[in-house]
Design brief:
InterPro entries: DUF4389. The chain has helices at about 5-15, 25-60, 65-85. It is mainly alpha-helical and about 100 residues long. The two termini are about 20 Å apart. About 5% of the residues are buried.
């Protein structure tokens, strides 16, 4: 039986993650945290632009959202969640581009 969209997203967020075998030093973690913070800032800017574009599309299409934009929003949200988990030390898995995007 195929998985529902909600199950797919839940699996991407909470599914098995390949945790690194060894821990990196705190200095390298700090470097990654700074880089990911910059990337998160950019991602939030993209999310804001995406929100405005999707709203305009919905106004033009009588309330029907663009499926590609919605899927991209889901992928972006999952990336942001994975980045936040790394930033808060809830996970040792670095988000894309250091690991697969899923």
């Amino acid at each position: 039986m195929p998985l529902s969209e909600e199950e797919k997203v839940n699996g991407r967020l909470n599914g098995e993650q390949n945790e690194p075998s060894g821990r990196e030093g705190l200095v390298m973690r700090f470097v990654y945290m700074v880089l990911i913070s910059v990337m998160l800032s950019f991602a939030h800017t993209v999310l804001g632009a995406l929100t405005i574009i999707q709203f305009v599309v919905m106004v033009i299409n009588g309330g029907e959202p663009n499926a590609r934009l919605a899927e991209f929003g889901t992928d972006l949200g999952i990336w942001i969640a994975k980045a936040a988990r790394f930033q808060t030390a809830a996970s040792e898995v670095k988000p894309w581009p250091w690991t697969e995007l899923d």
